Recover the amino acids of this structure.
């Protein structure tokens, strides 16, 4: 994996897909792509003066709120890929960041868009944009990897989701902010589905909302629902804490 470098308002990184990021068919796992996207996002923000270290001084931190990734063609183990990211400024309470993954031949593999918020590390409450004007440089890029903002995701109404077990947040789930890392929710969601489903099909579109942070010791009850859109199987997985949604994932296969 090379260093993150700047190309205009975009940042990019060359990566050789490692075996530990792939499944039994040697394809990149969706959660692994989320890990890659998070890492380059941190480096890009740091280079622009509003990264983890810059916010931490002010007892604030970036937190993901929504994501949408479109997997056009997943790379495989040992494939050389190039991952791009750029921020697109503010949109209400959200700060927008896009991603683009291409193969060595220049072919588009993954596109993505994400919406972030800033929280106070001490109170865990949202910090409003007007409080951050002196800290954040909001001059962003004009390109769209995905033009539409990452949407709100919720279980379909009128249909009862089935219980899919529970997960207690443990050491391996927790990130540098002290709560469950965004990619771990995707791991939980994929593990709620039958192995034959997730190993025999590729995820085409992934939507995820992070509604309430979970921390070590939190017990998350998991629910799943299968439906269909335009003939394609669609799965929802929601994690609830004390009856309230902590996260909700929509996976289109």
């Amino acid at each position: 994996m090379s260093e993150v470098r700047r190309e205009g308002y975009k940042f990019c990184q060359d990566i050789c897909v490692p075996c530990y990021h792939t499944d039994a068919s040697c394809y990149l796992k969706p959660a692994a792509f989320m890990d890659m996207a998070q890492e380059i996002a941190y480096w890009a923000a740091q280079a622009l003066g509003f990264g983890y270290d810059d916010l931490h001084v002010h007892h604030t931190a970036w937190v993901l709120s929504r994501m949408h990734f479109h997997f056009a063609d997943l790379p495989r183990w040992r494939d050389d890929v190039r991952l791009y990211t750029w921020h697109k400024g503010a949109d209400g309470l959200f700060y927008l960041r896009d991603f683009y993954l291409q193969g060595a031949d220049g072919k588009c593999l993954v596109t993505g868009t994400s919406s972030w918020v800033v929280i106070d590390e001490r109170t865990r409450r949202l910090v409003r944009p007007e409080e951050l004007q002196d800290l954040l440089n909001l001059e962003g890029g004009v390109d769209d990897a995905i033009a539409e903002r990452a949407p709100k995701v919720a279980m379909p109404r009128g249909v009862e989701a089935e219980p899919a077990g529970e997960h207690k947040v443990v050491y391996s789930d927790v990130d540098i902010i002290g709560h469950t890392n965004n990619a771990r929710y995707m791991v939980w969601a994929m593990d709620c589905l039958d192995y034959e489903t997730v190993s025999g099909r590729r995820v085409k579109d992934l939507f995820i909302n992070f509604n309430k942070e979970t921390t070590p010791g939190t017990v998350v009850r998991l629910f799943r629902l299968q439906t269909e859109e335009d003939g394609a199987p669609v799965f929802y997985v929601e994690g609830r804490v004390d009856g309230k949604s902590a996260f909700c994932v929509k996976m289109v296969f």
Summary: The mean pLDDT is 94.
